[in-house]
Structures are given as structure tokens and as C-alpha cells.
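Request from the bench team (R.T.):
"We need a structural guess for the complex before ordering more flavin-adenine dinucleotide. Sequence and SMILES attached. Just send the C-alpha cells back."

Command: build protein-flavin-adenine dinucleotide structure.
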Amino acid sequence: MLERGNLGGRAVTLKIKDFSFNFGAHAIYGRDTSILRTMEKELGIHIDWVDFEPNKAKYDIGDRLTDVPANIQGLFRTAVLKGTGKIKFTFEIFKTMLRLEKGHPHLSIAKWMEENNTSDDVKEMMLTLASSNFFTKEPEKIPSDVFFRYYQRLFTTNKPVTYIGGGWQALINEFVRVIESHNGEIFTKTKVESVLASDDRLTEVYVPNAVYAAKEFVFCIPPKELEKIFVDTKIEHSAKQYSSYEPSYVYVYDIGLKDRIEVPYTYIYDKKNRIFITDISHYDKTCVPEGGQLLQAVAYISPDDLKDKEKIEDYHQRIEALYDKHFAGWREQLVVPRVSKRAAAQEIKWTMTQDPMPLYFPDYRNVFFAGDWCQGEGQLSELSFSSAYEASQLILQKNE
Ligand SMILES: Cc1cc2nc3c(=O)[nH]c(=O)nc-3n(C[C@H](O)[C@H](O)[C@H](O)COP(=O)(O)OP(=O)(O)OC[C@H]3O[C@@H](n4cnc5c(N)ncnc54)[C@H](O)[C@@H]3O)c2cc1C
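Reply to R.T.: structure attached below.
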């Protein structure tokens, strides 16, 4: 295994002043039916699962907080939906669970809802949910078939959101253990710079001062980098197509606090601004020094705002205002702030005009791809795990 930097990529845990920051959050959605759960069983890795508490999740709707309809109790208590809206929304959930709604690949979810005369409050509820699960400020652009496939699984799971105790680093350690115990070798700080291909297969990869030949290759490298590596090969053009696609960008502003600020919620979603704060340390006690607290705020960024410095700065101000509103006194307790102004939560955003990358191209049948820019199950890291699993299965079956 050849890795350009240190292990983990965006799924990395950084220790700063005794606080462990996970660059991308380590929330796994629908863990009981997830590929990570399959990997746990098949590879014998151990994961310390810590389930999210839906009763501690709130929507900030301006003048007050209300329950997130993440379970039946939340659905009955929430003020986001009114009486008939609740019934209609429940009905939509049942239809999705029973696969009566499948959507259509050529209809965005917004268009689908328009054609099905979905009422305004149910429409808003479904888009709010999708915004947080797909990490996007433009949930209306999600293809409707992708939407319903995603929620069919999420609505039928008993474990909608779960954290990995010890953060991504704990998972990395487990993968390393499995690779090394099977005589695999890992080389970090080893960048793949180019490749050599014969007519119909890849034969070698080049890193500084070394060449590796192999029978099969799996590239878990984002399309923008793949494009450079595959220059002058038959798949240069295909890699280029996927590298031109837009990622889902978010603004991340984490804070490590000296003393906990006790509040009755662990998750706040500001509906208007599409910003959420999670009390990560409530779930993962290992990420803070004794008595401390680690809060993570994420704002979904509109693509138009990316080039505008002032608008990006505005995300910072809005996040701080949200901290002020719900975690009063945080400024006095602040030990470490950690900001990423433009973090790619997913390398290819799933919209009507973009497609995820396939796991292989017909030109070279011994080259596979995996990552959150590839076709697979779920969204975010689930796509990385499921594409990697599928690529491995294809190789194993070929070599049986
Ligand atoms: C703010 C934020 C919040 C998130 N929250 C969640 C969440 O709650 N739940 C969730 O499931 N996911 C979440 N994610 C997404 C998750 O972090 C990513 O989906 C996941 O880390 C992608 O992993 P990957 O291995 O597919 O890609 P990457 O992490 O991008 O890994 C690619 C790897 O390739 C290496 N590489 C690149 N070029 C070369 C080269 N030439 N040679 C060798 N190596 C190379 C890189 O160094 C890197 O290690 C979040 C992401 C962000 C940014």
C-alpha cells in the first residue's frame, strides 16, 4: 500500500493540545446495515460503536429549539411539521421503507416532489433531512432515485447515526493491524507519480526512487490526482471527466474547550443557515482532556460563495453566533480553535449533472478505483468503504 502522506486522508485524527480533532466527522450512518459492519465481521476488526442519542438532537428554528423528527417521539414533538404534515410525512416514510417510492434517475428530488404534489411542509422536511445527510446546501438537486435508495436504508435501520470511539485513528489502527498481520506492507510518504501500461493492462506504478509491478491495482486516489497520474494512458480522458466535477464543500470550525458547558442537547441544526454543531466529546470521551469539551460546527457552502472571500468570512461569523447562542461562555473556555475554510466532505457531489466514477474502465481490466467519488452505497465515507469492498470482491472472484 502506497500513501502520499500519512494514513487516513480526510478521515484523520489530529491531536492538538490534548484534543483529538477528526478532520471529517466520524459519524457512520445506518451502521447496522453498513459495509463497515460487514468489514468488521469479515476482517475481524474491532470498532467501539457509540450511538447517537436522537432525543438530544434539536432544530434551531429562529426563536426556539424543537425536536428533530429522527424517531417517532421526535416526529410527534417537533414543531417543524404541523398536525396533517406529520401524518403526510409519516406516510412518505412508510412508502419509502416499503420501496413504494423509487424516484427516477432523470428527475431531481425537487422535480419529483413537484410532480407528486408533495405539500410544502413535507417537502421542506425532506429537503432539510437530505441537506444534513448529503452535506449539501442544494438538496433539491439530488437525483430522486438516489434520494429514495438512501432513505429506504436509513429509515429501516435501528442505528441511524453512530460514532467510532477513538475517532478515525482507531479505525486506521485496526486496518493497519489486519494488513500487517497478513504480510501486507505499508509505505507512507510515498507518492505515486506515474504509471506504465501495456496495450490492455497496467503493469507498473512509479514512486520517487522505486517502481512497483503488480497483477492487480486499486487506486484510492481522488480524480484530480488520478488525472495527473494517468496522463498519456488510455484512461486519461475518463479521469479528466471526473476531476472536473464539483465536490460538496463545507466550512468547519471546531473548538476545544477547557471545561464542559452543560446543555440538554448534543446536536443543533440551524435550519435557516444550514449549520450544525455537534458535541463530539459527549459521544467520544477519548477526544478531550479531563473535563474538556470538543464541539464541531459545519456549514454547508453554496458553490457560488466559494470564490467570494467576504461570503466565506460570513460563514465564520454565523458559526460563532450559533456557538454564542447555544454554548454561552465558550469564548472564555476556548483552548484550541480549528478551522477548515474549504473542506471537501465528498469529492463528487451527487447532483443531476454529475455522476460518481465507476470502479473500473474497460481499457484496463486490472485497474480498480475506490473512494467517496466512486459508485457505491450511501454517501460520504460509506461510499469509500463500499467501493473498496466491491473492488476487492471483483479482484478476489477473478483470482479464485
Ligand atoms: C468536514 C467533513 C465532515 C465529514 N463528516 C463525515 C461524517 O460524519 N461521516 C462520514 O462518513 N464521512 C464524513 N466525511 C467524509 C469523509 O471524511 C470522506 O468521505 C472520507 O474520508 C473519504 O475517504 P477516501 O479514502 O475515499 O478519500 P481521501 O480521504 O481523500 O483519501 C485519499 C488518499 O489518497 C492519498 N493520495 C492522493 N494522491 C496520492 C498519490 N499520488 N499517491 C499516493 N497517495 C495519494 C491522499 O494522501 C489520501 O490519503 C466528512 C468530511 C469532511 C471534510
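Two things stood out. Residues 70-156 form one domain. The first helix runs from residue 35 to 43.
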